# Entry
Amino acid sequence: MAKYFDVHPDDPQRRVIGNVAEMIRSGALVAYPTDSCYALGCKLGNREGLARIRSIRDLDDRHHFTLVCQNFAQLGQFVHIDNDVFRALKAATPGRYTFILPATKEVPRQLQHPKKKTVGVRIPDHTATQALLADLGEPLVSSTLLLPGEEEPMTQGWEIKDRLDHVLDAVLDSGDCGTAPTTVVDFSGGAPEIVRRGAGDTSRFE
# Structure
């Protein structure tokens, strides 16, 4: 059974956030809110967690996982960014965007695109997510919580707990966070390529 944690959306209880972070450090797979849908997340290097996400979402090996980072200092450890790309990303973060960039050697091979050696990264604008990342001290390996055969992700923590109780270790709930996924922009070739139009404004990348 998944443990259920309910936190205030604007002032999440530090003790509860700490409990969830400790579970993640110990190998847990959690569902957590972001500024763009709920996500599934686990600790960097948690092979079992990745396998469980793939199983829940019925994903193949080509799926781009996302490293959800607290800030640019953290993001810069995992992707290569030139000055022009840095300025573009800086202007759009934190926010509802995922950026695909060349991965550094700090990114485990199983997280990288098998041919392109890229990885998705994002910095969310969400109070509870930021509190969790701050306590964790490292990125969350994540994927949008969209179940196979469904067009929209679940928006309520209690619903996630009810439906996925048997396959998750914890659910962090801070209220509805919408159904629109992030906008995905691929910078791996230098110029921005919009891969998916989602919650973030795409005009700045066109």
The longest strand covers residues 38-43. Helices lie at 14-25, 47-57, 72-75, 83-92, 127-136, 157-164. The chain has six helices and ten strands.
